[in-house]
Write a structure and sequence with these properties.
Blueprint (H helix, E strand, L loop, with lengths): L4 E2 L4 H10 L5 E4 L5 E7 L2 E7 L11 E9 L6 H11 L4 E5 L2 E9 L4 E2 H34 L1
Antiparallel strand pairs: 1-8, 2-3, 3-4, 4-5, 5-7, 6-7
Amino acid sequence: MSATTFRCVTPEILCDLMRTMGYAVDIATGQGDAPILRAATSGITFDIRFLNPAKDGKGYADMSFFAAVAAPEGKSPLEMANRWNARMRFGRLHVASGYLVLSMDVIALGGIQQDYLVTQIEVWDRLLQQFRPFLRDAIGQAGAASAA
């Protein structure tokens, strides 16, 4: 285990860490020139958005893992989001413009260790591994309901 402590997180630190974990990661630029990391796992593309600049201006105090998929037709996306949120603890699912959006926030403020970042990435990966069968089941249920 690593004892490296970060007072804030930077896209470069997280990108390097994810690459050592086996992810293919790209750094992109979002709204207002904010950096975004883009990667995929379990067949789902996701972004990591850096939100609040640290006081020293050398990184960010927090970040949000974010994945959006088109809501399946014939199924209430709000019902799906409520079902997910009632069963899952760390990632939250919400509906936005016909998409199901899974997100998870990570706070770095006050100092975090590298092991904590690794654990948060692993939690996110696990959420996406569970999200795929959840979507598959929801699509299957929607198809069965429309056939009836």
